[in-house]
Structure formats: structure tokens, C-alpha cells
User: Fold these one by one.
Assistant:
Number 1:
Amino acid sequence: MKDTFKHQGLRNQLAVVLKNKGVTDQQVLEAIKEIPRHLYMDASFQDFAYQDVAFPIAAEQTISQPYTVGFQSQLLEVKKGEKVLEIGTGSGYQTSVLVHLGALVYTVERQQELYKKTSKLLPVLGYKPKYACFGDGYKGLPDFAPFDKIIVTCGAPEIPRALLAQLKVGGRMVIPVGNAQQMMTLVTRKSLKEFDKQTIEECAFVPMLKDKNLKKY
Ligand code: SAH
């Protein structure tokens, strides 16, 4: 696996593109400049890794568009040492951005093939999450709750109740809500019973799937 000066140059350009689109958080831009996105993709797509586009990965899923990764990360306002729950590990690229920001990342993926792939890849690249598992993100991770931040990287038909319950008071959740098309939604927990919901902009993610056959983890 190779990372070259050429890749580095392309990443710097990508960071400028994202900045012009509204990703202005300096730490997030640093992460985009650092993380070798091409190494999270199939060889056949690697030449396009620094275009601001989503690409197919295994199991009919996608690696999110860099703008989306940057924008969601910015909305989350991650601080060093915070516990962050990620639903939809996918390629592990968003996971790595969160690790780079200093978060303790707990990540869940429902495609076993992707879970296995990232379990090998992330330690090699030096972006190891605190905990990763194969499971159903609708349930969250009750054993590790509560979380300072929650990020969902697949389109959820509705906000899963279990995730709301696992958010700390004062915490933030960034989640695309909807079916074919979604609304990026920022949820802040005001108190034990009170949640503030803000819709930000339209977006398009692969669906958050329900799977009753998944084994308990
Ligand atoms: N952040 C990832 C996005 C991958 S696409 C990246 O940039 O690569 C969204 C991911 O959510 C897919 O890998 C999909 O398998 C996963 N997903 C869908 N439904 C899920 C569920 N119920 N629980 C956990 N993961 C889910």
C-alpha cells in the first residue's frame, strides 16, 4: 500500500474544494489532508480517490463523498477524548477522520465483509477505533453508552430511539433522515427528556437497513 507526494498534493487540493463548499473547520481539513483515502478504495477506483465523489466499495455499499464526511464531522464538533458512536463503518474512512480528531470511536457495521475488511485495514493505517463490531446499528451499543456524539452514515427512515437514549445530555447526533432522499439532521440533547432537532440540508446515503437475522453481538 503506497502513499506518495502526488497523493498528498491531490489531498491538499481536495481540502481546498471542501473549504469552498463550506467545510471550514481547520482540524477536519487537516484530517482530509492527512488520511490516504485511496487506500480505503478498490484498486480500480484509486485514481479517482481525490475527487469529491462517493464510490462503490464491497457489499454494494459506498465510501461517502469527502464533502459529506467533512460536513458531518464538522457538525459533530468532536473534541479530543470524546466518546463517539458511528453507525455504518463502511470503508472506515469516516472512522479514521474521527480517530484523527482525537475521538474514542465505537463503530458498528452490518455487512460482515466490510467489518472484516476494516478490522484489518484500520490498524495497519494507524487509525484504530476504540471498538468495532459487526451488528445492527438500530440498537446502538448499550453496553458502552452514553456517548458524547453519535454519527450515522446511512439514511435512516426515522431517528432510532435506542440512539437517542444513548446520547449524553449536551451531546450531539448527526444523522441523515429519510428514505430515497434524506435531510441531514442535527439532534442535540437538551435534558433527559428534551431533544432539539435541526434540519440542515438535503443529502443522499445508502439506506440504513433493518436486519432481524443478525446475530446478537
Ligand atoms: N462512513 C462510511 C459510509 C459507508 S456507507 C464510509 O465513508 O465508507 C454506509 C454504511 O452503513 C454501509 O457500509 C452499510 O452497510 C452500513 N449500514 C447500513 N445499515 C446499517 C445498520 N442497520 N447498522 C450498521 N450499519 C449499517
Note: The chain is about 30% helix and 25% strand.
Number 2:
Amino acid sequence: MAIAIRTPAQIERLRTASLAVAKTLRYLQGLCRPGVSLKEIDAAGEEYLRSLGARPSFKGLYGFPAAVCTSVNEVIIHGIPSDYRLQEGDIIGLDLGSEVDGWFGDAAITVGVGTISPGDEALIACARDTLEYAIDIIRVGMRFKELSYAIEEFIKARGFLPLHGFCGHGIGRKPHEEPEIPNYLEHGSPKSGPKIREGMVFCIEPMITQKSSIPQILEDGWSVVSQDGLRGSHYEHTVAIIGGRAEILSKE
Ligand code: MG
């Protein structure tokens, strides 16, 4: 199936859904203090998102039980909100999806709780800076594999690794659409595969590990960690290709 091309009017619908995610993540970032539980963050996020007229799209998606993925420390993505209470020095990934009138948005951030170590600062900065770099280099005509390869090279130059087995993705009338956009060159040449075109809308989401790219899923069936057992980080934006370049939709 071809990668969808959206009209400017459709992109505005996607911007509305994405903006609700951006606003909710900013609100949740302020809640990530010592003593706050993951379930409290999830409940606050769902309430805030709904107050903006959006539905939390992750809730029930593939059976996920909550609105917000709360991924603490060694959990890199897909953490389930629990009764765990945040502690000084933790890092937490917040990933949220929304739906407004059948159009979807998706974004993620990683936040430090109180004072965090310099190593964790660098880990979080790698995810954030990789995302910014990827968005900056996107041009119409570039291949998705070139983008994946550039993301991988950027992460490795920082001394970190991309998590394997999970990826960015198209987004539109469904939360996950074609294409898959890994944070590494999965196979083949960077000069092969589909090209980025005007009107495409997709999510870029660098997932950063320290010593091993190999993922493991914990007993809860959701939480994804690295085989190295070390902390990871994750950032994500929904972007649209407008005027030949990537414009962030999930930004206030
Ligand atoms: Mg996503």
C-alpha cells in the first residue's frame, strides 16, 4: 500500500490532534516530581487531553491499558502506569497519542525527576537532539532509509545506540500507518525504498540505549528495556512535509 499524501486541510486536522498531545505533555512534565505515582500521571494526562476535546488513542490500542506510556529509568518505551512513585534522580519517558474526529497525533518526551546525573542528562539530550537533527535534515526526495541511516549515525556519534525492533511510523486516520521508520538502517542501501513526498505525515521517535540495541520485553508484556539493563531515552514528534521540509505538528 502506498504512503498517504494529505491535503493541507487534512494536515490541519492532524495538527489539531497533535497539538493536544503537545499541550498535555507540557502539563505532565510539570507533574513529574518525587512522590507522584505513574497512575496519577496517567489519570491527569487523560483528563487534560479530554479537556482539550481529544481522546487518548493508546488506551485499548493493541490492548494497552492506559492513556500515557510511562517508561521509568531502564524502561525505554511502552511502560504501563503503576503505583510506583517517582523518586529524585529518576528519568521518565511520557508517550501520548490522541484522536480528534478520526485524525491522530503522537509525541513523546523524556523528563528528569529533580536533579539527575550528568550521564542521564546526556542520554536524554541524545534523544532530543537526534529528533531535532532528523527533522532538520528532512527534504522532499530524500528516502526514508536515508533518514533512518542518518539518525543511526547521529546517535552513534554521541556514543549511544538506537533501540532495535521498534520504529517511527506514518500517522493519519490510524495511529500507526505506513511506512515504518526505524532509527537505524535495517537492511538494504540507504538509496533504496520509498521517498519522502510533499503532504506525507509521520512520526519520528528516536529510542536511545547505552550498550546494547537488543530489546527485551518485561514480564508485564509491554515494558521494553535494552538487553544491557541500562537506562534509555525517547523523544517523538509528529511532522508533516510542507514546502519541501518537515514541519512539527506536535508543537505549541
Ligand atoms: Mg509513535
Note: The first helix runs from residue 8 to 29.
